[in-house]
């Protein structure tokens, strides 16, 4: 049984929990991070020098960085249906997983800290507006991709890319600001919400 270190309301921890649910991977989760056990202590730093969650421990193997974790789990626990071994199919999935981490995440950061977290360090309304615009631009890219596939991010089949982007879409839906009309994203959100694992760890009211 793998150990997952991280609080369950973290979007990055929820990626791992959702994948474990999809692949029926037994796990034990431990509360680490804000409000729980500190990630700044030596015990945690030995596992992840960045002091961030999640971290997994699988026997004598430990790993940090959520997207690396879900790739590892798919490889290790018969997740080829979600993360195919064929190089071009895998590359398409990796492209969108990395896009979510680099482009999409960075676009929403300031807006979410202001609108959802109410951070006193994120009160510059001009920067909030820029973040919302960048976020909307990124979501327009996703909208165009979903218009092409008419289903999931990379095609007809649910994949690892949908775990990371599905959580991002849920955050988009729940963050309170005026949004452009994106019908294919709305359809995608409804499609994902038919999955029990998404309702448990993704579309579960947490943002």
> First CA to last CA: what distance?
28 Å
Unreliable runs: none
- Order of strands across the main sheet: 2-1-3-4
Number of helices: 8
Q: Given the helix and strand composition, which structural class is it?
A: alpha+beta
Shape: globular
Q: Quick one: biggest sheet?
A: 4 strands, mixed
Rounded mean pLDDT score? 95
Please count the beta strands (DSSP E, at least 2 residues each): 4
CATH topology of the largest domain: Glutathione S-transferase Yfyf (Class Pi), Chain A, domain 2
The residue fraction in helices comes out at 55-70%
Order of helices and strands: EHEHEEHHHHHH
Please tell me the CATH architecture of the largest domain by its name: Up-down Bundle
List the helices and strands and how they pair.
Elements: E1 2-5, H1 11-23, E2 27-30, H2 42-47, E3 55-58, E4 61-64, H3 66-76, H4 87-115, H5 125-149, H6 160-174, H7 183-192, H8 196-201
Parallel strand pairs: 1-2
Antiparallel strand pairs: 1-3, 3-4
Structural write-up:
The chain has 207 residues and is an alpha+beta fold. The protein folds into two domains: 75 residues, Glutaredoxin, CATH 3.40.30.10; 114 residues, Glutathione S-transferase Yfyf (Class Pi), Chain A, domain 2. The chain has eight helices and four strands. It has a four-stranded mixed β-sheet, covered by helices on one side. Helix 1 packs across helix 6, helix 4 packs antiparallel against helix 5 and helix 5 packs across helix 7. The mean pLDDT is 95.
């Amino acid at each position: 049984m793998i150990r997952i270190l991280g609080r369950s309301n973290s979007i990055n921890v929820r990626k791992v929990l959702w994948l474990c649910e999809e692949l029926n991977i037994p796990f034990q989760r431990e509360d680490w991070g804000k409000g729980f056990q500190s990630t700044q202590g030596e015990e945690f730093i030995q596992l992840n020098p960045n002091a961030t969650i999640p971290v997994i421990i699988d026997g004598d193997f430990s790993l940090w960085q959520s997207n690396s974790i879900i790739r590892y789990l798919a490889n290790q626990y018969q997740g080829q249906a979600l993360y195919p071994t064929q190089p071009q199919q895998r590359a398409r999935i990796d492209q969108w997983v990395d896009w979510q981490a680099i482009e999409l995440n960075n676009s929403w950061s300031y807006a979410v800290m202001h609108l959802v977290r109410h951070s006193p360090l994120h009160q510059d309304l001009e920067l909030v507006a820029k973040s919302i615009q960048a976020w909307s631009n990124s979501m327009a890219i996703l909208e165009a991709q979903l218009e092409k596939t008419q289903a999931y991010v990379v095609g007809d089949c649910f994949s690892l890319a949908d775990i990371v982007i599905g959580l991002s879409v849920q955050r988009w839906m729940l963050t309170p600001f005026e949004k452009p009309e994106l019908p294919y994203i709305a359809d995608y959100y409804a499609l994902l919400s038919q999955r029990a694992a998404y309702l448990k760890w993704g579309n579960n009211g947490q943002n």
